[in-house]
Every structure is written in structure tokens, then in C-alpha cells.
Write a structure and sequence with these properties.
Number of strands of chain B: 14
Strand order of the largest sheet of chain A: 11-10-9-12-13
Low-confidence stretches of chain B: none
Oligomer: heterodimer
Distance between the termini of chain B: 33 Å
CATH topology of the largest domain in chain A: Rossmann fold
CATH architecture of the largest domain in chain A: 3-Layer(aba) Sandwich
Number of helices of chain B: 23
Mean pLDDT of chain A: 95
Number of domains of chain A: 3
CATH class of the largest domain in chain A: Alpha Beta
Shape of chain A: globular
Largest sheet of chain B: 6 strands, mixed
Radius of gyration of chain B: 23 Å
Helix content of chain A: 40-55%
Strand order of the largest sheet of chain B: 1-12-11-10-13-14
Mean pLDDT of chain B: 91
Number of strands of chain A: 13
Strand content of chain A: 5-15%
CATH architecture of one domain in chain B: 3-Layer(aba) Sandwich
Radius of gyration of chain A: 23 Å
CATH class of one domain in chain B: Alpha Beta
Structural class of chain A: alpha/beta
């Protein structure tokens, strides 16, 4: 077993940190790295996440200390100080975060020292260590939020049970993050709750500072955010529940009932909301029946993606569309501790198909190939086709070569664009179904 | 000869040819100071994301046919390949090359590796790369991390060459080595020259075309065919064998000096392969000079002249029509230095005035000794043109757009197009403006863009930049200190 990773489908933690900050309103990143890191990462996020692009002060606009070989020898603290003075003068923000990279960590720059100079002047500046060896992009998400929430935001004495925070969806590395969070918010608001998603377009900096007031945290990932929310609970006293990302009517109904139970929401409201949502959902489905019944609409499916979404998609395909899920492949690049959390969470859980953990893209393709039956000269052999591949664009070439229908659902995505679309919730489930049907009729 | 193809890796451009990324003034001043060696790279008080010379090298290596790149570093360094894969796929649709993802294997360095070294990970990964892909060549690239911790690449390459029967090529391209991302071209060309290019056995009527993804591949083949030449394309789509034959070509050329200078000069110096550095077929006059020079190599000037005349006949009325249409149109250029200055002339050929040109970096000289005055031909009529040099520093770009108020911005890559759009200015991406058809294409794009500004207007109205109020009103504030 080799330790190498072919075509990694994640970045260093700096990449995830930059993506996360780009989605936080009013927060400005300053990357204390060699020239190149931030530019390199801006491409992989702006273009490889359904062309999510850049915004206010992200991507190519990120202030970077851009240090070079001489700084590697003599230290980059002076350059960082200069960059910070200019950033405060020229760039408007509510909170500024210095992120480190491999080189600033290896040469052990005194980032803390420089940052504290500015803090002493009352500047809203913090720093987060985000070198590659802290973990991957998903870890970067957690590191940034942990620093802001569990280190910076003051503890709120007034808790409001109607305020909910949603965590676990990582900007850009969950390519549908805006649509998914928007739908989750819509559903929770129907239950009379106020929601801090932090990353949807309606959010302001106040949503971030209001986070400690929440009565409940909902974590939509089995791994990403577990440590964050444990510490959150300790510091701010807000409990959390871990829920699978709900995709489609069945999962979303269960999601609503779990949240309602945790918050003691009256069952009349809950039942009414679920009833109305399902009426809408199945009314669309009813009319799709003509197409579905008129076509061969039964597929074996392979689902490749991260720990947050893969099993939810697989369950949706199995439970709502009647597909036969053969493989659920979780591609995350997890440190031992996180792997333990994930495996613990999955124990006893309903898992469609064979579950595998594989980060290396070459091995993922091999795994998918091997799952298909191979002609061996026998008169009859079940090839396990027709087959539908759900994965990242890295899986596309395999699908195309084998003439299999395919849909990009996980990072990296660069053969489709994603603006407001999401696959979570009732509407997301419909959108996923719509996209699957689109793939199947597109050649007509 | 600044290209010293000795040592295990190339020097960064700042040190080798005194390239700069920070300047504001006019063209005359820039070139005079540059040539006399007194152009000092300025400093910025605020710098933003630039690109990585490591990734530049990685990109150019991964497009070599049947090559595998083993990136000795943390995964973040290799993840940039996703972005280039995308470009490769887009261009594959144009060139008809096999459509697929580019390959890189990361050795996945972790924190303990920075203390104890990780040369064994490199061995394992190279062996694994060979086993998996049966490549024709394996490139080993260094990163900031692996070069800082002092990994012994040379020994590793020696050992691996004993066991693996394909070329194992070390490419020293740590990102921290140079702030100029074009230094990555030099890194990979240095390595390819040392390892894959062989002394000539015979002379052949081929021309080395050193450029990016060969957008104009078929057109180039046709052009060369007329004058009895055949192209050898580098690096994209080139095989190891193509590299071995590069020294047998009559000449080298490319669509961009920034890209072609190192390898072109090295081939000329070591093996006498003429490097056509002054022109590379951009626009009308550029194309004529370039094509005639190529034709001289085979004594086919008459054929070339005849072809150029027929192209004039075909395209002149169209170009004249555009010149009328573009009366009064003012453009700003934001491009790499291979294009930023040449394009001023090309735009004048279609009747567009350039009010400012911004180049991502500037090479005062090229790698060849006799290229000291390579800018002269470009600059002679436009000495007063306001010029800036900045490595995709887009806060500066915004201020310049506000200052010069161009009707259209001509750009390519590195994020300038997004920034231009958000200022509400029409923007056109130009690939090369290669030859008559390319020039007309460019005119057509610009004309189309100017016909309907509804889309771009929206951006101007609804997108903001993250400047402080104070800075928004300071028009002449410079970031250069």
C-alpha cells in the first residue's frame, strides 16, 4: 500500500480556510505564504467547484505576504507586518484573519507576535495555523470556524431557543453548499426557527456574531465539525445534534422530526409543514411518472463523494428512485482521529451498497471498474448494467469510456456549473431527480 | 548566454535576467532602464495572490504525452493541477488530442516528513507511478517544502534510474525560488533540455513550436507545409522521441517569448538551432515578418510572399471595415509580457488605440545575448505609452481601469478578466491573434463585445470591491513603495 495520492481531490487546509472565509460575510483573509499558494488555490476553488468563482475579497484578491527565498532564510514577519498595515488601510472588513502556509510554519515565523501587535491597537485581527500538514481543505473549514467561534466570540448569556446554527457544509468543497444551506434554512424557518447558515447570500456579519446565542447546533456532517461543536458546547453551552445531510422527501421528513424533537416544537406545526412539503414534492413526482414509466429507468449505481453527502445520495437513489446501489465510495483524506469518528458514526448505520474508503483517484476508478461484471465467454453473464455513476468530474472519463450515464455530485466539479442549485431537502431531492432525468433524456 | 543549462536547476528570472514585477511609468523609461540594468524591482505595500512557478512547471510537464508527474510535496501543491486539467480538456476539443485528465501523483508529505525527510515516499511513489501507468517519462518535481527540508533528489534519481527503464527527470521548481511564475517554464525546460534533448544525428526540416496547448495546431501545420517545413510541438502532445529530435530542427519559435526563450536559446547555443525570437506571428506585420523568416530557412520566400499577398487580398477589406467601426475605441491591455507589448501594435492594425498596457512581469532582456534590444521594434512608435508591470495585482488593476476608463479591456488569464467585468468594462479574452485569421477573429470578438454591453453593465452596477471608503476616493494612491 502506497502512501501517495494520485490526483488529490482536496487541497491543503489553507485552501479550505480560504474558501470558508470567502463565504463568511465581512471577513478578510490574509495569507502569510510564499507567492503562489493563494493563487494556485484560487484556481482549484473558483473553477473546480461547479465554477463557484470568487467574490468580495477572495480568490485572486486575497492579500498575501508573498514571501520568497530570502524570507525563508531571514523570516517573513516584517513582510507580514507591512502587509497587515496596508490591508487595514485599504481593505474594508469586520474581521481579519491571518492564515499560515507550510513555509511560514516550517521557518517558524512569529505570526502570533505580529498579530498581537495589531490586537493591542484594537484591530480585529486573529490568526489560524493552516499549513498542509494540519490536514486537508475540510480541516481548514473547521480550523477557521473553531478559532472564530471558540476562541474569539464572547459567550452569550442570553440563549434564544429559536436560533439555530447549521454546520458541516464546507464552502466550495461541498459544491452545492449555497443551495443546500438555503434549502435547509427554508425548511427550518417553516418550523418557526431563525437560522444562521453563515454561508448563504442572505447572511451578514451579524449572523456570525449571533452564533453563540443559538439554542441548538445542527451538524450536517458525520465528521466535519464534530470537534468544533464539542468545544462550542463546552464554551457556549449550546448542544448539537448530528444529522445526515437530508436528500429528498424521506430523509428530510426524518430530519425535520429529529430537529423538532430536539427543540420541542409542537407536533401540529411539524405535521402541517411535512404534509405541505410532501404534497408539493409528490405532485411533481406524479407528473414525472409518464416519463419514468415510459423508459427503462432502473440502474445500478456507484456513488463517489465525501463523507458528508455520499451516503445520503446513495440512500436517495435506493429509497426514492429504486436504484440498486452497488458502491458507496467515501474519498475523504482523513487523519486517524477523524477516521475513528467517522467509522464510529457509521457503525450500525444503514449503508447502501459496499462501503469503501479510498482517496487515491486511480484506485477509485479501479474499484468502479472491478465492480462491473466482465464478459468471460460464458453464454450468459450479468454485467450489472445499466449503470449510473455519481461522483466527481474525476469519475467522468471512466463513465464516458464505458458509455455509462454520469452526474457530477461531489468535488471537483468542472463539467457543469452550480449557482443556486442544491440537492438537500425536499426541493433539492426534486432537483437531483430532475438532473438525473436530464442526463437520461439528453441524448434524445 | 543567460540560459546556463548547467546545474540541477535553473535560476529564477529575477536573478537570471533581472525580470521585474513592479513598475509604473511609460514604455520608453521601462525599456531604457531595463536595458541599462538599472531597473530595480519595486516593492508593494499591499500584495495579493499571484501564481506559483511550481504549478507553471507542473502544468507544462503534465501535458507531455504519456508522462507522469510525481510531485514531492504536500497534496495542496498538486491540487492546482485540477485547474490546468480543465484548460487541457477545453483545448483538446479544439486540437482533437485525446480528451482526458492530466496526471499527477502527490507524495503527500506530512509534518513529520519535514523533520525526518521523506525520500522513501518519493521512491515508493515513483515506483507506483511506473507500475500504474507505464509512462514514457517520469518527472519528479520539487516543492517549497521538499526543497527546504533538503531532500536528496539527485541520489534518488540515480537509484531510480537503475531500476526503471524510462527517463526519470528531476525538475527543480520550488515555488519560493521565484516570484515570477514564468520561472516555472525555465525550470521544466532546463530539466527537459538536460534529460530528454539529445545531440542531433541529422538535420531535419522541422521547426520546434514551443508554446502552450497549440490552439492553432492545424493552421500552423498548414502554414509550415507550404514552405516545406514540419512542426514539432512542445511541450503539449510531445513525445519523448520528439524531445530527442528537437536538436535536429532548423529553427525554434513559439507564440510567446516568455514561454519559448529558455529552451529556444539553449537549443540555439548548444546545437545551433536558430531561435526566431523577435516575432511570433501576432497580428499582420508580425505574421509577415515571422513567416518570411521561416521561409528563408528553406529558400521559399516567394511562396511566403505570394501567400501573404493572397491573405492581404482576402482580409484587407475586412480589416479596413473593422478599422472604420473601431474609430475612437480605446483599449487597455492586461496580459503576460509576451503579449502585452506586441498586442499594442496588433490593436493599432485593427484601428484601436491603447491607453495603457499592463504586463504581468517584464524581462529586460531575453536569454540570448543578442536579444538585448528585443523590445526596440515593439516600442519605437509608442514610447510614451503608459505602462505598468504587476503580477496580477488586481487592486492596482481596478485603480488603473478607473483612471484610464477604457472602452474595452483585452486580457488573458490570471483573473484580470473577472476584475475587468466587475468594473463594468467590456472584456475580451485573446488567445494569440495569430496571423490574418487570428487578427480578424480578435476584431470580431471585440466588435461583438461592444455591440451589447447589457451583461457587463450589470456587473458594474451590482458588484463592489472591498476597498475602504477612504481608499475608494484616493485616485492616485499607489501600492508601489
Amino acid at each position: 500500500m502506497s502512501s501517495c495520492i494520485e490526483r488529490p481531490r482536496t487541497t491543503c487546509s489553507l485552501g479550505g480556510a480560504l474558501s470558508t472565509i470567502s463565504a463568511l460575510p465581512g471577513v478578510i483573509p490574509i495569507s502569510h505564504t510564499t507567492s503562489g499558494c493563494a493563487g494556485n488555490l484560487s484556481g482549484t476553488t473558483a473553477f473546480n467547484s461547479g465554477y463557484c468563482g470568487s467574490n468580495y475579497c477572495s480568490g485572486q484578491s486575497v492579500p498575501v505576504s508573498n514571501f520568497n527565498e530570502s524570507n525563508v532564510v531571514f523570516g517573513g514577519a516584517g513582510r507580514l507586518r507591512e502587509e497587515l498595515i496596508s490591508t487595514f488601510e485599504l481593505i474594508d472588513g469586520k474581521l481579519y484573519i491571518v492564515l499560515t502556509g507550510c513555509m511560514s510554519e516550517i521557518i517558524a515565523d512569529d505570526v502570533q507576535g505580529v498579530v498581537s501587535e495589531f490586537q493591542n491597537e484594537g484591530k480585529p485581527l486573529i490568526y489560524v495555523n493552516t499549513p498542509s500538514f494540519e490536514g486537508d481543505a475540510f480541516e481548514g473549514y473547521e480550523l477557521v470556524l473553531d478559532k472564530i467561534i471558540n476562541d474569539q466570540l464572547p459567550v452569550s448569556s442570553r440563549k434564544d431557543k429559536s436560533i439555530i446554527n447549521v454546520f458541516g457544509i464546507v464552502p466550495q468543497f461541498d459544491p452545492f453548499f449555497r443551495g443546500d444551506l438555503g434549502e435547509i434554512k427554508r425548511i427550518l424557518e417553516r418550523l418557526g426557527l431563525r437560522v444562521n447558515t453563515l454561508f448563504t447570500n442572505d447572511q451578514t456579519y451579524k449572523n456570525l456574531t449571533d452564533v453563540p446565542k443559538a439554542g441548538l447546533n445542527i451538524l450536517l456532517s458525520p465528521v466535519y465539525g464534530v470537534d468544533l461543536l464539542k468545544k462550542f458546547e463546552k464554551r457556549h453551552g449550546t448542544p448539537f445534534i448530528t444529522e445526515d445531510l437530508p436528500v429528498g422527501a424521506i430523509q428530510t421528513e426524518a430530519f425535520i422530526r429529529h430537529v423538532a424533537k430536539a427543540l420541542d416544537i409542537d407536533s401540529a406545526t411539524v405535521n402541517r409543514v411535512i404534509k405541505e412539503e410532501k404534497r408539493d414534492y409528490y405532485a411533481y413526482l406524479e407528473r414525472a411518472a409518464d416519463l419514468i414509466s415510459d423508459s427503462e429507468f432502473k440502474y445500478y449505481a456507484d456513488v463517489v463523494g465525501n463523507a458528508t453527502g455520499t451516503l445520503s445520495y446513495a440512500r436517495f437513489l435506493r429509497d426514492e428512485l429504486g436504484f440498486v446501489v452497488e458502491n458507496s465510495v467515501i474519498t475523504d483524506f482523513l487523519p486517524k482521529k477523524k477516521e475513528k469518528i467517522l467509522k464510529g458514526y457509521l457503525e450500525g448505520k444503514d449503508i447502501p451498497g459496499n462501503l469503501s474508503f479510498e482517496t487515491d483517484t486511480y484506485q477509485v476508478t479501479k474499484l468502479l471498474k472491478n465492480a462491473m461484471g466482465q464478459p468471460n465467454g460464458d453464454f450468459y453473464i450479468d454485467l450489472h448494467t445499466p449503470r449510473f455513476v455519481f461522483g466527481s468530474t474525476f469519475e467522468k472519463d471512466y463513465a464516458v469510456k464505458n458509455a455509462l450515464p454520469y452526474l457530477a455530485i461531489s468535488y471537483p466539479v468542472y463539467d457543469r456549473t452550480i449557482l443556486s442549485k442544491g440537492y438537500a431537502g425536499f426541493r433539492g431531492g426534486l432537483q437531483l431527480m430532475e438532473d438525473i432525468l436530464c442526463v437520461l433524456v439528453a441524448g434524445r | 548566454m543567460k540560459t546556463a543549462v548547467i546545474g540541477s536547476e535553473s535560476l529564477g528570472r529575477e536573478r537570471r535576467i533581472k525580470s521585474v514585477t513592479c513598475y509604473e511609468g511609460n514604455l520608453k523609461d521601462l525599456t531604457e532602464k531595463g536595458c541599462s540594468g538599472c531597473l530595480k524591482g519595486g516593492k508593494r505595500c499591499l500584495s495579493t495572490a499571484t501564481f506559483c512557478s511550481h504549478l507553471t512547471a507542473l502544468d507544462e510537464l503534465s501535458v507531455v504525452k504519456n508522462a507522469v508527474v510525481v510531485d514531492h510535496g504536500p497534496i495542496g501543491c498538486s491540487s492546482g493541477m485540477m485547474r490546468w486539467t480543465l484548460n487541457y480538456r477545453m483545448e483538446s476539443l479544439v486540437t482533437g488530442e485525446p480528451f482526458g485528465d492530466l496526471n499527477v501523483l502527490s507524495t503527500n508529505l506530512s509534518e513529520s516528513d519535514t523533520v525526518f525527510g521523506a525520500i522513501n515516499k518519493l521512491y515508493d511513489t515513483v515506483r507506483e507511478a511506473y507500475r500504474r501507468h507505464n509512462p514514457e517519462v517520469i518527472y519528479i518535481t520539487s516543492t517549497c517544502m521538499s526543497s527546504t527540508i533538503g531532500e536528496d533528489f539527485e541520489s534518488a534519481v540515480d537509484v531510480l534510474r537503475e531500476e526503471i527503464p524510462v527517463p526519470i527527470v528531476f525538475v527543480g521548481c520550488a515555488g519560493a525560488k521565484s516570484k515570477i511564475w514564468a520561472s516555472g517554464f525555465d525550470s521544466e525546460q532546463h530539466a527537459n533540455f538536460k534529460n530528454l534533448i539529445k545531440p542531433p544525428k541529422e538535420k531535419r526540416n522541422t521547426v520546434n513550436i514551443i508554446e502552450f496547448l497549440h490552439h492553432h495546431k492545424q493552421y500552423t501545420i498548414d502554414l509550415l507545409d507550404r514552405i516545406g517545413l514540419k512542426p514539432l510541438f512542445f511541450n503539449a502532445h510531445a513525445t519523448v522521441e520528439d524531445f530527442a529530435h528537437a536538436s535536429e530542427s532548423i529553427a525554434s519559435t513559439g507564440v510567446c517569448n516568455v514561454k519559448a526563450s529558455y529552451l529556444g536559446s539553449a537549443l540555439e547555443k548548444e546545437y545551433g538551432v536558430k531561435y526566431l525570437a523577435d516575432d511570433y506571428g501576432m497580428g499582420i506585420a508580425g505574421f509577415e515578418r515571422w513567416y518570411l523568416k521561416l521561409a528563408e530557412l528553406t529558400g521559399s520566400e516567394d511562396i511566403a510572399r505570394e501567400y501573404i499577398a493572397s491573405e492581404h487580398e482576402k482580409y484587407d477589406p475586412i480589416l479596413e471595415d473593422y478599422r472604420q467601426k473601431f474609430k475612437g475605441v480605446k483599449a487597455m491591455i492586461i496580459m503576460g509580457s509576451g503579449y502585452a507589448f506586441e498586442l499594442v501594435r496588433v490593436l493599432s492594425e485593427i484601428g484601436i488605440d491603447v491607453v495603457h498596457t499592463n504586463s504581468f512581469h517584464y524581462d529586460p532582456v531575453l536569454d540570448r545575448d543578442d536579444d538585448k534590444d528585443y523590445m526596440k521594434r515593439v516600442t519605437q512608435d509608442i514610447e510614451d505609452l503608459p505602462v505598468s508591470i504587476s503580477d496580477a495585482q488586481h487592486f492596482e488593476t481596478i485603480k488603473r481601469i478607473e483612471k484610464y476608463k477604457p472602452d474595452v479591456i483585452i486580457t488573458r488569464v490570471h483573473g484580470a478578466q473577472t476584475i475587468a467585468l466587475k468594473t463594468g468594462t467590456p472584456v475580451v479574452n485573446v488567445l494569440a491573434a495569430f496571423g490574418f485569421p487570428g487578427t480578424v477573429d480578435l476584431a470580431e470578438y471585440i466588435y461583438e463585445e461592444l455591440q451589447n454591453k447589457n451583461f457587463v453593465k450589470k456587473f458594474g452596477e451590482h458588484c463592489g470591491f472591498s476597498f475602504t471608503e477612504k481608499f475608494k476616493n484616493e485616485n492616485d494612491k499607489s501600492f508601489i513603495v
